[in-house]
Amino acid sequence: MAKRVIAPPEKMGLRNVADVFSVSGCISDDFADYVPYWKHNGYWLFDSPEIIRAVANAASISLEGTQLFYYEVYPLQFDGEQWVAFAPEPSFQLNVQAPSAMQLEGFDVVTFWAGTSPECSPLSCNLMAKEVETNSHCLLVTLEQAKQGLESGVFKDAEPGPYRIFSVNSVPWPREQ
Q1: Residue 108 in contact with residue 166, Cβ under 8 Å?
Q2: Distance between CA atoms of 114 and 87, rounded to whole angstroms?
Q3: What tens digit of pLDDT does each residue of 131-164 get?
Q4: Is residue 76 pLDDT above 70, yes or no?
C-alpha cells in the first residue's frame, strides 16, 4: 500500500510518536480511495507496486510524497475471545509479490468488523498508544506484544472486532519500468 504518512496532530497527545505507519487510513491516508478500481487482492490490498501505480495513473493521482509499505498478516484473527482462522476473499486473485528489500517497522492491530478492507488501527485511531507502549511509528514492537494485548483485553473496547495483526514493513519504491 502507498500511504501519505503524517505526524499525529498535536491535539492527539501522542508525544512519543513521530509519524503514523498504521495499516488503516484514519490518520495516514491511503494514496486513494482505491476500492472502486477493483485492482486489489483478496486481502483488499495490492499485489505489487506496479498495480498501485496503474490505479494512481488511471485516476490521475500523484504518488509523489507517498511511502510504500508491505504488510504480512498473522494467519489467525482474534474475535474477542479466541483466535480463529480467516482467508482472503476468494473471488479476487492473489498474486502477492514480496519485495526484495524491506524494513520491519513494527506490528499493527487492525479491526475487520465488515470482514473486507482494513478499518481502524486502535493504536492511532482510538489513541490506544497513550495506554500501550508503541514505537515512534505508533506500532507495537513485537508480534508477541500484539497477541498479548489482544488476549489480555487491552483492545476490547476500542472498536468492534475481529482484530488482525499485521507486520508493517517499509519498502523503497521500485524504479518505473
Answers
A1: yes
A2: 14
A3: 899 999 999 999 999 999 999 999 988 888 899 9
A4: yes
Q: Give residue 177's pLDDT band: very low, low, confident or very high (50, 70, 90).
A: low
- Residue span of the structural domain in which 73 resides: 2-171
User: Position of cell 472502486?
Assistant: 36
* 25: in domain: yes
Helix (H, G, I), strand (E, B) or coil at 12: helix
116, 127 contact by CB (below 8 A): no
46: its cell numbers? 495490492
Cell of 4: 501519505
* Nearest Cα to Cα of residue 140 among 172, 113, 163: 163
Spatial separation of the C-alpha atoms in residues 65 and 39, rounded to whole Å: 22
Q: One-letter amino acid identity for 19?
A: D
Please tell me whether residue 125 adopts helix, strand or coil conformation. helix
Dist. CA 31–CA 40, nearest whole Å: 13
In a domain, residue 19? The reply is yes
- Asked, for residue 177, whether it belongs to a domain, the answer is no
pTM for the complete prediction? 0.93
The amino acid occupying position 68 is L
How far is residue 164 from each of residues 14, 64, 80, 160, measured CA to CA in Å?
Answer: 23, 29, 11, 12
- How many domains would you assign to the chain? 1
